[in-house]
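User: tokens in, sequence out, please.
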């Protein structure tokens, strides 16, 4: 239908009437790709710093088969890892590979492995959220009790990962590496853990050396946590298991209420033995709905545990209902004789209340909680009210006081149900001055998370905190091209662009993995 516009007002009406896509998490920059590609000797514009010797890896959802746009949830797409290997100023290869969960193998017509490691976690969803290297292994990570997978250096799937049998029932998508010890700290959640979450420390040999079960108020979705030099900080927030999503759509309508009551009384309250939980999702049927939803009855709290403490040592602080996927960093310091904990996070007013397909129903902002551990007082402030996500810092400073943080500004796309095309920015925040700058990026470039790679130094204090490279995937609309984008951490100006053979969809999280 054509519109004749007589005034700017009518033009605005025409734009507002643009039909939203069936599912904004399946279109434009987020649309999945259909092929696994291997390309070598990639074209580079600019100069890749010589110290970058390794791989940039990033994970994200990319359904292997057709999905129903009416019910598809962004967080449940099959995992696909995209990697680029850099060495000697060159980009040696690009590869993208689906993580071979049981469902992906079945969809691709590949044989199932002879045995399944059900202790590693639930099997049918793929590990789609993060990817990192630890103790010589490449790990594709997810959360919620779903199995994680080990990959080869070239991103082929080895099999489920349970850290040599030391950590079962699933791990976490957001471990934090202690910059002093190299150990991975994480908090894992799963409905199978009952009313607990599990803090764990994976040593530098890739084995759990310590786990602590921590009691919470129910079965929350605990996507990330904060690690300081002294404390483990838990975000126990009101997005919790929705038992009906676990019971499934096959329950007849007249049975749904009693089934829900039964499910609520069992799932998320009692501990479910690991192999039984794994079997909940062991079949090869794809499950694309997320079983978590906003729960207005659930108390919003922040938990603070000394690193070597236990469940009884956790102090809980009430906060206003909200949701946090990603802290930027946290640290404690003494002010006027009081010990104060500073938590910088990206915060949402609400999550999975009105929109069950993804995180687009409220606009995430950069906020700070300050907890006075001496008096118990909690204060909250908004540091930046622009819409932004994917906070990263120079992680050699993790757990201590940071000066700089980087976030991705997002407008349109899934934040307005796809009515306008997504645009992105890169923000550099200076917490010392309270100011921020916007990276001078090409206007036709949209980006995802940007990781910070510090310039090598014998001691981090030798260099400025922002002396390094920001690296992540982008899509150049004008060139219709996927790119690996490298920016200077100080100026945020382009250092190099690696031109990729296909678009890399906006995904979740990535990390630089140096050659060992
Ligand atoms: Fe995340």
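Assistant: Sequence out:
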């Amino acid at each position: 239908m054509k519109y004749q516009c007589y005034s700017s007002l009518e033009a605005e009406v025409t734009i507002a009437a643009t039909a939203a896509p069936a599912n904004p998490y399946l279109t434009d920059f987020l649309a999945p790709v259909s092929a696994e590609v291997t390309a070598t000797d990639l074209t580079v514009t600019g100069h890749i710093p010589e110290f970058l010797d390794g791989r940039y890896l990033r994970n994200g959802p990319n359904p292997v088969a057709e999905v129903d746009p009416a019910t598809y949830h962004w967080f449940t797409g099959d995992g696909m890892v995209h990697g680029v290997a850099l060495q000697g100023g060159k980009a040696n290869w690009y590869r993208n590979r689906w993580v071979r969960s049981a469902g992906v193998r079945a969809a691709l017509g590949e044989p199932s492995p002879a045995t399944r490691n059900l202790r590693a976690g639930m099997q049918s969803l793929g590990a789609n959220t993060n990817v990192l290297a630890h103790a010589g292994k490449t790990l594709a990570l997810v959360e919620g009790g779903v199995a994680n997978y080990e990959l080869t250096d070239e991103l082929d799937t080895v099999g489920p990962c349970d850290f040599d049998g030391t950590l079962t029932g699933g791990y976490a998508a957001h471990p934090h590496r202690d910059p002093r010890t190299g150990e991975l700290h994480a908090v894992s959640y799963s409905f199978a853990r009952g009313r607990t979450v599990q803090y764990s420390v994976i040593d530098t040999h890739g084995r759990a050396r310590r786990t602590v079960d921590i009691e919470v108020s129910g079965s929350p979705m605990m996507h990330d946590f904060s690690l300081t030099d002294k404390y483990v900080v838990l975000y126990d927030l009101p997005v919790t298991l929705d038992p009906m999503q676990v019971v499934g759509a096959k329950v007849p309508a007249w049975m749904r209420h009693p089934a829900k009551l039964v499910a609520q009384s069992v799932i998320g309250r009692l501990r479910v033995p690991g192999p039984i939980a794994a079997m909940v999702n062991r079949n090869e049927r794809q499950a694309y709905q997320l079983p978590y939803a906003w729960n207005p009855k659930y108390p919003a709290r922040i938990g603070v545990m000394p690193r070597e403490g236990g469940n009884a040592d956790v102090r809980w602080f009430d906060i206003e209902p909200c949701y946090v996927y990603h802290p930027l960093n946290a640290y404690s310091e003494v002010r006027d004789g009081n010990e104060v904990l500073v938590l910088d996070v990206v915060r949402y007013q609400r999550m999975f209340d009105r929109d069950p397909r993804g995180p687009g129903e409220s606009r995430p902002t950069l906020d700070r909680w300050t907890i006075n551990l001496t008096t118990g007082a909690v204060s909250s402030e908004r540091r930046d009210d622009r819409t932004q996500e994917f906070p990263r810092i120079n992680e050699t400073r993790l757990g201590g006081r940071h000066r700089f943080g980087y976030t991705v500004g997002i407008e349109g796309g899934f934040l307005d149900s796809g009515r306008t095309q997504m645009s992105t920015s890169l923000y550099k925040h200076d917490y010392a001055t309270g100011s921020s700058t916007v990276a001078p990026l090409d206007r036709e470039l949209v980006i995802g998370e940007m990781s910070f790679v510090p310039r090598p130094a014998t001691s981090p204090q030798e260099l400025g905190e922002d002396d390094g490279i920001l690296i992540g995937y982008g899509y150049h609309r004008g060139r219709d091209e996927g790119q690996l984008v490298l920016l200077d951490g100080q100026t945020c100006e382009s250092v190099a662009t690696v031109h990729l053979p296909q678009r890399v969809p906006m995904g979740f999280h990535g990390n630089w993995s140096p050659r060992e």
